[in-house]
Design brief:
Elements: H1 2-9, H2 11-25, H3 39-61, H4 70-96, H5 113-131, H6 134-141, H7 150-169, H8 176-196, H9 200-222
Length: 223
């Protein structure tokens, strides 16, 4: 496509194409990683997510009974807790327990193995955010439509985009610290969700901490 535009519009398009290629490939360490080389696959993924949320799945569930999905939900919550633990361990041991400082930690763009390791764990966090898009599908399949609010959809779709930008242009440095905080919050959240899925008796026991977890979620979202 770029070659056709170059022939039609000449030097202006050549310059724009150069800038596009430079912007995408400036940080070569992550340029070839899955879903990172170009924004187009990610934008297509988000578009497919929005299509499923607002068109396909509501039509699919229109005349169907809600699915239970209890086993899947329990498995998903355990997966999220484990994934967040892995992210915390990886990011912590790739800088924060070694040579990072809280004041202002610059991004290391070298080929140092530790810097590359940090980038890989931030990419893993991005993949987890992609998987989190399926949470909305579960709400719709269970006919919990009140949970599919505009804020919910915005949060999930925008988080994926921000995570992609992090892997692409800032996979490390001070940007890794909020990821640690977010992973800690998610461990609390998904542990609570898993325990709640065990039945009404457990839900009654957890009622005392439900409001506190809601506050934690709100505070972490604001950050």
């Amino acid at each position: 496509m770029f070659k056709v535009l170059k022939r039609l519009y000449g030097e202006d398009i050549r310059y724009l194409c150069f800038q596009y290629d430079y912007t995408l490939n400036e940080h070569k360490r992550t340029a070839t990683w899955p879903l990172i080389s170009s924004p187009l696959p990610l934008l297509a993924l988000v578009a497919a997510y929005l299509y499923c949320v607002y068109i396909f799945l509501p039509k699919y569930m229109a005349n169907r009974k809600p699915y239970s999905l209890k086993k899947y939900i329990a498995f998903y919550n355990v997966f999220q807790v484990i994934a967040c633990c892995v992210v915390i361990y990886g990011i912590s041991t790739s800088g924060w327990t070694m040579n990072y400082i809280l004041r202002c930690q610059e991004l290391d763009l070298s080929d140092d193995p530790i810097a590359i390791r940090m980038a890989h764990y931030i990419w893993l966090c991005f993949i987890v955010k992609v998987i989190e898009l399926t949470e909305t599908f579960v709400f719709i399949l269970r006919k919990k439509s009140t949970q599919v609010s505009p804020l919910h959809v915005y949060h999930h779709s925008s988080t994926v985009l921000y995570a992609w930008l992090g892997v692409k242009y800032y996979p490390g440095g001070m940007a890794a610290f909020p990821i640690l905080l977010n992973a800690f919050v998610h461990i609390i959240m998904y542990s609570y969700y898993f325990l709640s899925s065990l039945g009404p008796e457990m839900q009654t026991k957890l009622q005392v901490i439900k409001s506190k977890i809601t506050v934690i979620q709100i505070v972490s979202f604001q950050k």
